[in-house]
Amino acid sequence: MFGSLFRRNASQKLSALLLIFGFIWGLVLLRYTYQHPRHQNSVELREQILELSKRYVRALAEENQNAVDGPHGVSMAGYADLKRTIAILLDDILQRLGKLENKVDYMITSSLTNNTNSTNSNPVSAASNKQMNVQEFSTLCGLTSIDGFPHCEAKIKWMNEMWKSEPCYASYGVNGTVCSFIVYLSEVENFCPMLPVRINEIAEYDALKPKAKVVSSLGGLLEILAAREELTWIKLRIERMKENWIADMKALAKKQNLENRPKRKILLHLGLLTKESGFKIVENVFKGGPLGELVQWSDLIASLYFLGHNLILSTSINELKGHLSILTGNKGGCPIRGPRLLDLIYIDIVGLKQLQTVLGASFTHYRCLLRVLDSFGTEPEFNHAEYAKKKNHGSPWGKLNLIPKQFYNMFPHTPDNSFLGFVVEQHLNRSNTTLLNKIQRTNKALVYGKLADYWKVFVGLGFPYEGPAPLEAIANGCIFLNPNFNPPKSRKNTNFFQGKPTFRELSSQHPYAEVYIGKPHVWTVDIDNPSDVKEAMNQIMELKVDPYLPYEFTSEGMLERLNVFIEKQDFCHQREIWPPLTALTVKMAKPSQSCVEVCQREQLICEPAFFYHLNKEVELKRYGIFCNSSKTESDLYLPAFNLQNQMCLFQSDYLLFSCAGSHEHYNRICPCRDYIKGQVAICQDCLKREAHN
Predict the structure, then answer these.
(1) Are 107 and 349 in contact (CB under 8 A)?
(2) Which of 312, 378, 457, 658 makes an SS bond possible with 636, Cβ 3.0 to 4.6 Å?
(3) CA angle (53 as vertex; 51, 58 as ends), nearest 5
(4) How do residues 23-44 score in pLDDT, each as one tens digit?
(5) In what order do the strands lie in the sheet with 522-525?
(6) Does 682 map to a domain?
(7) Which residue, 376, 393, 419, sits at the end of a domain?
(8) Same structural domain for residues 451 and 536?
């Protein structure tokens, strides 16, 4: 029925929409009348529904009258306006319908509770839950587990005592039952998993959303960027690379099924470009200032645009306040439904601090929408505020209490985070790479340095760490001489890393190039040893290499990866395990060994999403791990196994799941996964359902 609606002409669309509209409101009235015909507020509720119906019909009729162009159709301008109006009104209808249904449910349940002679006859009512067992009552509601939601149980108990403290809770259907608490805490505040029946209902709602259509030109985006002086550098980069973007978007659309994707409303707040940040990046962007972050923002914006999503750009705090005014307008103690107003928020660390200030107490209700651009990574022990304070981990960038996968890195160096990446610019494109064969090489070198700070100890070697320049050189036919670090550089011995929220150790200037590319394109040497450098240079002079660029750093690779993240990463409701469990391989580490090391040794990647699955005794048995006893703690090395007494140790705080943690006495239980060569962020089974048949 709904599918055929959008294949009709404008007049038929309006008629069909009104038919659906009447059918929806009719169901509400019928449901209320059938289930509770004598409630004292029924007349008032009916009048409210009917009045809304009249207003919507009147608005649609007026819009239709303005849009109709003769007896056979509508003008193009009118047709576009009508489509927008219908979409807005339909979304408003659905939101108001949800609120009215919540009120109906509240009235029905309250009446049933009042008419019950025994307080124990309703097993999920607040009256019988003074000493509640949350797991038991959750099961009665249809929720089999609250694993992966560490605060769910405490929040349910709090709601049990305090649900009457704010009148706005009732408007969301909170009525004193554990089931209503779970619905609220899963769909409004995101502290609990969703009930299966509600997942199906939301899936049906999502099916009505507009679909994202891939874009085949850059005209619209370049026009938007041209109007903003602070985005000039980003505009020039995207425009310079537009041929590759367009070609790769078409190639990906042929390779994978990109139909039926919901069109997301996405806010992008570039905190580093705000005047309030004090960075002066806009003023110095063409004077040798740092560009790594701008490269990533540029490629993110282009990718989201080509994938067909609705983008909202923000580069000032006032602009951010304007975009979020609708989120902060409620005066009650509970929030409005943020995820229906925004689907995703891409932001950097500086912008995140600004967002917290703008949203105040409401920030917690939108944290699950965040995707934080974070160049060097944020490990769980710095992200977890209480744990970082306990361990005295000083860092201005940590203590955010996000799910670690919400941090998006430039390189796949921290499996606890997500690898967003960027696109390496190739000056020799597909059509002229054959010119390399005609170029006569001379024994000359290019020394590269943007600022005076780069010209102190080693000329063009050793710094900056993990920048895009080496990959650009390799992509254009050069060989990269990569200095190794012995001992490795980290916050323990290098000033540059002391403020970073990670204990990651860099074995060289560019660990990605060292591990994932290697010879003949990358030669990692000890630059303090002249004989090693001379030997490497002698071998390099005999080589002839072609340009090489890993697929994950092409525009097609980034489009593929970002699209999968948008469709599959769900930190609000976590409707399914992703990556799929078919990718899981369980390994046991030796004492003092991290899961990063164990998985990498097996040519695999540690996948923190699987920790939830392995954090149960019944699941460990499937992998040949049998527990004589068990206990639950909170630390970075869990889940783990004590070989001496066959004791299993499980994680109680899910924000502390960490691929990086280790313990000198316990064997870590490690969730590893496979990956696509050249696309390490995606497992081999992750794209099967996305591909064309």
Answers:
(1) no
(2) 658
(3) 100
(4) 555 554 444 444 444 444 445 5
(5) 506-508, 480-489, 522-525
(6) no
(7) 419
(8) yes
